[in-house]
Design a protein that fits this description.
globular, oxidoreductase, binds CIS-heme D hydroxychlorin gamma-spirolactone 17R, 18S, alpha+beta, Catalase, 19 strands, Hemocyanin, N-terminal domain, disordered C terminus, Catalase_core, Catalase HpII,  Chain A, domain 1, 10-stranded antiparallel β-sheet, Rossmann fold
């Protein structure tokens, strides 16, 4: 790009949310209306045959077009991220709710008029780049803020705690959880011997393990999960006063997850499930939104908790320090090119702006080294910040030069500081001109490889998490252990894990043991032995026994909206057009989507002669891909569907996954034909709702019917249906 074009672009920069988009647009070439050229700009007149000596002869070395095209192709792949390889991303903007100068001088928080461009990449951790979205895993939640003071990266996860307390253990953790080295199995799964061997020897991981065993490990949508900065960071204000902060993203659409059986089936039916959901939501204008919140702790209160603020395996319960909402992020544009943007984006927790600073959390300190190091190998050299998606929207001036793939053409004679020949430029910025000043924390101590005793309460918050869950969530955690440990072949590892779990909750450990053919944890000495150097913390004034906020089932976390949900409307020839239209409109009004599903693709004629085109047929979709199902009446349509095994399976499976189902008119007869009929109450006149199944035998009150159906969709799951499985829980 010409230098003056770039300068003009950079001049526009900061105040507009579209600045980053415009900057990127300068780099995109879609070739519309253009001739095909080589990479050096020579027009090509034929690309379907290589240059040969005679039409049946050998290919000629001279064919520069062939060689250039093939060489580029041969080098198309770069190393995937060693963790978080599978990711999906979106552009958007962040807007502050109001100035907070008392907390931080960072400009992005202090002007509510300003829209700061962002790029967010959400990822799974363990799977390879082509692995499925819906596996049980932590999700990465990395946000790059292109602020007027430079880039700030908030590189967080959808769980607020981490497996380990010190960065030096990260390679071990990742080796243990990735596929085993001898046979590279299993893909994108922790359910194997190496991982649980590691965990059974690492009591500090138990709090995070409890989160990973919960349904938070397979979000329904990236727009329906929380995000956390995990570490304690610092805010610093203009007076240089610092406060501890924990960052939180709260999804406006509420927190919702899949269920495990569903998640596994989706991994086969649509491995791109979450990626597609994010993409389609943005294409439809259903923009995912997240509020940014902070928990703020005064420096005087650093030691006021029953855990160490520097320990990344601990949360500050929201009930102890409430979250202050400071702004909102809206994701409103899909990337133009996956590789150029989503793959090449390079996050780094060390990318901070004035007003945001670090603490001595040893995990954070480890990360501050690792992220630049990894980009050097992944992106091939030190110039990765010049890749369009990584470039700040402000100008960059320094004496860094050369290296692989240098983009900038620096002018001038000097490339060092101090200099007189370049007028002393680029010069250092005093604080008043926005120069970054590190918070002047006093540090002293002996050089020592040791962990502070204040980090050694390994189970207190694992208990807190478990005790804060509803019964159904506890059941799912138990089932997750049955699955994960059930796949572990080595009985000694399973046994050690049962002892480890006993340190969190005895009753849970017994239930887990009974489900995986292992002795219940009766030996107190062994329970203590696996706990290693665990030191339970004394209760203090701020201690709590439960934190309702960590339960997804907590009503405040669910929000009661239908935004972003997807409903299958199953029809056949002769369906009732009016009810379909009515329900569809209600869904659209709530920013949910409806798909018309039928046995075959094509136009389907309703009983009144109107037609509707199908979006999916029985083969291209499945009930696991929807949040709810609606089957309208229409005598002929229902009579046909009664004979379709796929429809019956749709209904049964949706019921098993505790999703809302709605039947109107003759469609109620369809339900009568299924084994579910005995499980839901017999419908009376009018509209009936039983365990999330909405029924209306006649079409007199469709308004009420749609209303009740929407309420059920907002509730999402009807866990009482899992009651029938309760007998099978070993106690
Ligand atoms: Fe990362 N992490 N991490 N991590 N991490 C990477 O950086 C690392 C940790 C997180 O979408 C890598 O560019 C170490 C915690 C996200 O591009 C790598 C330690 C949290 C992403 C790396 C941690 C995260 C990464 C791989 C322990 C939540 C994806 C490729 C000291 C707060 C970013 C890359 C994206 C990616 C190292 C622990 C979040 C290797 C050494 C804790 C969201 O550098």
């Amino acid at each position: 790009m010409a230098d003056d074009t770039r300068r003009k672009m950079e001049e526009k920069t900061t105040n507009s949310s579209t600045a980053k988009n415009e900057q990127l647009d300068q780099h995109s070439e879609n070739g519309e209306g253009q001739y095909l050229t080589t990479s050096t700009g020579v027009r090509i007149n034929h690309t379907n045959d290589s240059l040969k000596a005679g039409s049946r002869g050998p290919t000629i070395m001279e064919d520069f077009h062939f060689r250039e095209k093939m060489t580029h192709f041969d080098h198309e792949r770069i190393p995937e991220r060693v963790v978080h390889a599978r990711g999906s991303a979106a552009h958007g903007y962040f807007q502050s709710y109001g100035p907070i100068p008392e907390l931080t001088k960072a400009k992005l928080f202090n002007d509510p008029e300003k829209k700061t461009p962002v790029f967010v990449r959400i990822s799974t951790v363990v799977g390879f780049r082509g692995s499925a979205d819906t596996v049980r895993d932590v999700r990465g939640f990395a946000t790059k803020f292109y602020t007027e003071e430079g880039n700030w990266d908030l590189v967080g996860n959808n769980m607020p705690v981490f497996f380990i307390q010190d960065g030096i253990k990260f390679p071990d953790l990742v080796h243990a959880i990735k596929p085993e080295p001898h046979n590279e199995m299993p893909q994108a799964s922790a359910a194997h011997d190496n991982f649980w061997d590691f965990v059974s020897l690492m009591p500090e991981s138990m709090h995070t393990i409890m989160w990973v065993m919960s349904d938070r490990a397979f979000p329904r949508s990236y727009a329906m999960m929380e995000g956390f900065g995990v570490h304690t960071f610092r805010f610093v204000n203009a007076e240089g006063k610092s406060k501890f902060v924990k960052f939180h993203w709260k999804p406006v659409a509420g927190i919702h997850s899949l269920v495990w059986d569903e998640a596994q089936k989706i991994a086969g039916k649509d491995p791109d499930f979450n990626r597609r959901d994010l993409w389609e939501a943005i294409e439809m204008g259903n923009y995912p939104e997240f509020e940014l919140g902070v928990q703020v702790v005064d420096p005087e209160d650093e030691f006021a908790f029953d855990f160490d603020l520097l320990d990344p395996t601990k949360i500050i319960p929201e009930e102890v320090v409430p979250i202050k909402m400071i702004g909102k992020m809206t994701l409103n544009r899909n990337p133009d090119n996956f590789f150029a943007e989503t793959e090449q984006v390079a996050f780094h927790p060390g990318h901070v702006v004035p007003g945001i600073d670090f603490t001595n959390d040893p995990l954070l300190q480890g990360r501050l080294f690792s992220y630049v190091d990894t980009q050097l190998i992944r992106l091939g050299g030190p110039n990765f910040n010049e890749i369009p998606i990584n470039r700040p929207v402000v100008e960059v001036h320094n004496n860094q030069r050369d290296g692989f793939m240098r983009q900038t053409i620096n002018k001038g004679k000097t490339n060092y500081f101090p200099n007189s020949r370049g007028g002393g430029c680029p010069m250092m910025a005093p604080e008043t001109a926005g120069g970054y000043l590190h918070h002047m924390e006093k540090v002293e101590g002996h050089k020592i490889r040791e962990r502070s005793d204040s980090f050694k309460d390994y189970f207190g918050q694992a208990k807190l998490f478990y005790n804060s869950q509803t019964e159904i969530e506890k059941k799912h955690i138990m089932e997750a252990f049955h699955f994960e440990l059930g796949k572990v072949k080595d009985k000694e590892i399973r046994q050690r894990m049962v002892y480890m779990i006993a340190n969190v909750d005895k009753d849970l450990a017994v239930k887990v043991a009974n489900g995986i053919g292992i002795n219940p944890p009766t030996d107190e000495a062994k329970i203590k032995e696996v706990a290693q150097d665990h030191i339970p913390r004394e209760k203090v004034k701020s201690s709590v026994d439960t934190s309702p906020a960590v339960s997804m089932e907590n009503r405040n976390n669910k929000k009661g909206s239908i935004k972003g949900r997807k409903v299958a409307i199953m029809i056949d020839e002769g369906f009732d057009y009016e009810t379909v239209m009515q329900v569809k409109k209600k869904l659209m009004d709530g920013n949910a989507t409806a798909e018309i599903v039928s046995k075959f693709h094509g136009m389907i004629t309703a009983s009144n002669g109107e037609t509707l085109e199908t979006d999916k047929n029985h083969i291209t979709t499945a009930s696991v891909l929807y949040d709810a199902i609606f089957i309208p009446g229409g005598a002929k349509s229902v009579a046909r569907m009664k004979n379709h095994g796929d429809v019956i399976q749709f209904i049964n499976e949706a019921y098993k996954h505790c999703k809302p189902l709605a039947f109107s008119g003759e469609a109620v007869e369809l339900l009568e034909n299924t084994a579910l009929w005995n499980l839901v109450k017999e419908p009376q006149n009018g509209v009936n709702v039983s365990k999330g199944v909405v029924m209306a035998s006649n079409n007199d009150n469709m308004g009420d019917f749609s209303e009740r159906f929407m309420e059920c969709i907002a509730q999402h799951r009807f866990w009482e249906r899992e009651d029938m499985d309760h007998d099978s829980i070993p106690a």
